[in-house]
Write a sequence for this structure.
């Protein structure tokens, strides 16, 4: 699991609208309509993170949840981060479809 | 619900070991043995926060959970913050007693 090259990272971000690079991590803030909805989202992300054994930094600010992903043992962003971000997008899309 | 005076704040913190003032908020980091345990703790805190209609900033860093409390509409720390912190300590003590 090597660090992505700049070209690979640019390509990956094209498939992850809303995500961007900040402080060497890929980051997105998800807004919710309420605090309980934000917590339901965090629980779903946590379950996925545990399954993948890859854990985002999570900052909860009322109903906004910011996730930040990096592969610490590689010192940078890898496919593992991109893959977890894509699966989180899947959770979000499913939640929106049910809303 | 007025801002606490420095004397009131000092007194409150004496009853909240582990909590301190940082950037104008009362703050504590709770360490856990695993990520799932950290998430269970966050869920319990969230339920309490919703009941009290007072929502801490929550930063999850793997199994460490940092909570920060301030009363935004008073521009400072009030009894509401101290009271939520005390109830969170209660959750934590209960979890430790069962561990």
């Amino acid at each position: 699991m090597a660090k992505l090259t700049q070209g690979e990272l640019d390509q990956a971000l094209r498939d992850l609208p809303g995500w961007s690079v900040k402080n060497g991590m890929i980051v997105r803030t998800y807004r919710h309509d309420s605090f309980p909805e934000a917590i339901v989202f965090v629980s779903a992300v946590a379950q996925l993170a545990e399954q993948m054994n890859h854990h985002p930094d999570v900052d909860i600010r009322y109903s906004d949840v910011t996730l930040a992903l990096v592969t610490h043992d590689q010192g940078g962003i890898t496919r593992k981060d991109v893959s977890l971000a894509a699966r989180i997008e899947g959770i979000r899309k499913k939640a929106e479809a049910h809303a």
Notes: Chain B has one domain: 6-98. Chain B has a mean pLDDT of 95. Chain B touches chain A through 15 residues (CB under 8 Å). The CA atoms of residues 45 and 51 of chain B lie 10 Å apart.
